[in-house]
Design brief:
Spore Coat Polysaccharide Biosynthesis Protein SpsA, Chain A, binds magnesium ion, single chain
Length: about 230
């Protein structure tokens, strides 16, 4: 059987420093590269298009909104999500796609706990992120009797049919754990592969823990038990 085509989806908000290189690198793996941009003011959309990506402009902030907006415009059997900031290793794309191509998984999560992270430790902000993320992962493992290591990484690949069935609702980065939890709830096969997380190449993370921690807790309980 010929390999299934896949779309590489890159969510962006003000990533002008890295988007051109990201799009170029991604185009080596698939001709379908979709940049989903939320209200960037630094020229990211124009640069993405000039580099060869298809552009979807979303008129509202939030990574969750962006991912949900992409779903109706996707047309390939497989879809892969990767961040624009250089944190995720483009060279690992085939590793994420392989279990889907082989029919061995419905959803492949890249794990930075298995692959190591150059970003997730050091400051108190990172300490709380790592601790919170470990707690959420432990709750998921307990609830579904699985043994995953990372429930928060934005580097993942899924079958489009599965993604569509997840009925995603989250507006912000809580959409990552929503995708993982709903995959398990619906009985789809979740597989992890190790992937190293690099430090963001330019600028700083858009996540402010003090503003979002409550939503992480709420979304965890809601999707684990709701
Ligand atoms: N479309 C869109 N992308 C976003 C938004 N917020 C963050 N992103 C993108 O999501 C990815 C991860 O964001 P980042 O701030 O690096 O979060 P972190 O890696 O978890 O610290 C990057 O590619 C961002 O540009 C948003 O509101 N809309
Ligand atoms: Mg990042």
């Amino acid at each position: 059987m010929p390999p299934l085509p896949f779309t590489i989806v890159i969510p962006t908000r003000d990533e002008a420093e890295t988007i051109v290189e990201m799009v170029r690198c991604c185009l080596k793996y698939s001709p379908h590269v979709l940049v989903v941009d939320s209200l960037s003011t630094d020229g990211t959309p124009r640069l993405a298009e000039a580099a060869g990506a298809r552009l979807l402009a979303v008129p509202i902030l939030g990574k969750g909104h962006a991912i949900r907006a992409a779903i109706p415009v996707l047309a390939t059997e497989l879809v892969l999500f990767i961040d624009a900031d250089g944190s995720h290793d483009v060279a690992d794309i085939p590793k994420l796609i392989a279990p889907l191509q082989a029919g061995l998984a419905d959803h492949v999560q890249a794990s930075r706990l298995m692959g190591g992270s150059s970003e997730l430790h050091g400051s108190f902000q990172e300490f709380w992120r790592l601790a919170g993320s470990a707690f959420i992962t432990a709750c998921i493992n307990w609830r579904f009797q699985v043994a995953i290591s990372d429930s928060q990484n934005g580097f993942r690949a899924l079958r489009l049919e599965v993604l569509r069935q997840l009925d995603l609702r989250e507006a912000i980065t809580t959409i990552e754990q929503e995708m993982v939890i709903k995959t398990l709830r619906k009985g789809f096969r979740l597989v992890e592969v190790p992937s190293h997380e690099h430090a963001r190449i330019f600028g700083s993370s858009k996540i402010r823990l003090s503003r979002v921690w409550f939503r992480y807790g709420y979304a965890l309980v809601r999707y684990l038990f709701g």
